[in-house]
NmrA-like domain-containing protein (Prunus yedoensis var. nudiflora), 381 residues
Amino acid sequence: MAAMAWRLPTQLATPGKLHHHNDSKTAAYQSSFSWCRTNTRRLVRCTTRAGVGAVNLAPGTPVRPTSILVVGATGTLGRQIVRRALDEGYDVRCLVRPRPAPADFLRDWGATVVNADLSKPETIPATLVGIHTVIDCATGRPEEPIKTVDWEGKVALIQCAKAMGIQKFVFYSIHNCDKHPEVPLMEIKYCTEKFLQDSGLNHVIIRLCGFMQGIIGQYAVPILEEKSVWGTDAPTRIAYMDTQDVARLTFVALRNEKVNGKLLTFAGPRAWTTQEVITLCERFAGQEANVTTVPVSVLRVTRQLTRLFEWTNDVADRLAFSEVLSSDTVFSVPMNETFSLLGVDGKDIVTLEKYLQDYFTNILKKLKDLKAQSKQSDIYF
């Protein structure tokens, strides 16, 4: 069996290089992360061990509890975290990778944007100066190796947060990640949870099931545009949640001292299969979907083929979710205890029916208005 293993950095060192140190005056976490390949699947195993402990920087000017850094601020969840934080009066700084199209909308909202890259650990420390709380919503891009941002980058971020005295760290994970070591991203999320717990940082871990916003691009828009809707024959059920509700509950948890050090799971009111979601979209759109069903068995075969070549290994890692889709997994949990702990009313959580009804009502009204304007302009011409 071929195997690869590497050590993760124990200290953020000179730009462009990472070194290991055993000096007790430096950050001292040690972790190993190994990819073990067999003939049948690719596994991820990780171990974490706290060393002598990272030493916080000398006390200086106290930071305000309202100063937060959002990592992954341009993503589906990240932008809702930013908006909610600003609405609630927080001073928001956003860590954003340098990009051709600047994240001007974040500045327009009132946030401060700093350029940094989790895949370049030397860029991280400056973003944490004056920060009280880090909220980590980031994930790697589809074209990147999963380990680059979601493991190595997160370990560097956690180490730096510890060394610089960050007061609280919020990490978003995936529900059931501890039950699917065959899926690299889920195993990495679970390993990161453990690394954060062992770091000694005051933290909150939030596992998520699925976002309602993702349904729009995957099902709603193709149905309206009369394009193919891709689905599977899997029985997996997902309790989708509106990212606005995720953001709201996050800040309730952030202010609740009883939640410190806990692992929470946020789930929507009901778990849905792919076919049930498509049927719901058809009802609100008033038209049938052109559904193309991809058997899970095909995804499995595709994954096996992509694992044959080094340059397609990352595609195979992402196709590993086919293993989850074929396992009768239910991505949902009862939320009564969580609502009680947070002191919120579960009736205030948006249902998928309400979310999709509002979306289709608004979009169909806009389409109708555009059509009316088009006809009216024809008269003048």
Observations:
- The first helix runs from residue 78 to 87.
- The chain has a mean pLDDT of 79.
- The CA atoms of residues 375 and 381 lie 10 Å apart.
- Residues 63-208 form a domain with the Rossmann fold fold (CATH 3.40.50.720).
